[in-house]
Amino acid sequence: MSDTNELVQRYLAAWNETDAAARQAVLAEVFAEDAVYTDPLVSVKGRDGLDATIAAVQGQFGGLVFSLGGAVDAHHDIARFTWHLGPEGAEPIVIGFDVAVIGDDGRISQVLGFLDKVPAGI
Amino acid sequence: MSDTNELVQRYLAAWNETDAAARQAVLAEVFAEDAVYTDPLVSVKGRDGLDATIAAVQGQFGGLVFSLGGAVDAHHDIARFTWHLGPEGAEPIVIGFDVAVIGDDGRISQVLGFLDKVPAGI
């Protein structure tokens, strides 16, 4: 379970990493190469697709920080968790919820994402 | 979206169907043959595995009814929803949460399930 917590934290670290090379390194560590990522706004396959998605989100929400919104609930090879996006230490502007599937190699193979709070006009 | 609601309702109907042949018919309608179902207590592949799981749960919670606990939130090929298990019209004894992935043929190919409320001693 602590491994899964760490994996989720590293996954959120990828969303916060604005240096392209560093972000790709974190994604390679936590995300299977052919992993599938789907949220309400995008559905992509592979690390490159997720990397481009993260870069676009960072462009839209510059300066805001992703953080874990509560405990990670994990069993078998799956985990669910809520995440926040907002100014550091302040009320989140976006609240999302992901279910991650973890492959045999310990990396995330699939993310199924939903949104619980979005700013008006997004 | 209404199709997804209907699919989820039919999926819950399978959990409520105590006649084995009728349940298998509903499962064939809503669940891909090689679908994967994982919740905190079991991880099975294929309709037969899910059918056996449902039969076991019905044996444990005889007379209780599965119902949708709120709106189905769906996008792309995925949906999340909360379900209740309890006496008809009364406070649920078990509350669960599923994310379902829907295949190209419109049937559920994957269920990732979690529990939000469980009775003591289960």
TrEMBL record, chains A, B:
SnoaL-like domain: which residues?
Answer: 8-110
SUPFAM superfamilies, per the entry? NTF2-like (SSF54427)
Domain of life, per lineage: Bacteria
Kindly give the InterPro entries that the UniProt entry links to this protein: NTF2-like_dom_sf (IPR032710), SnoaL-like (IPR037401)
A family per Pfam: SnoaL_2
Protein name according to UniProt:
Polyketide cyclase
Organism, by scientific name, is [Actinomadura] parvosata subsp. kistnae
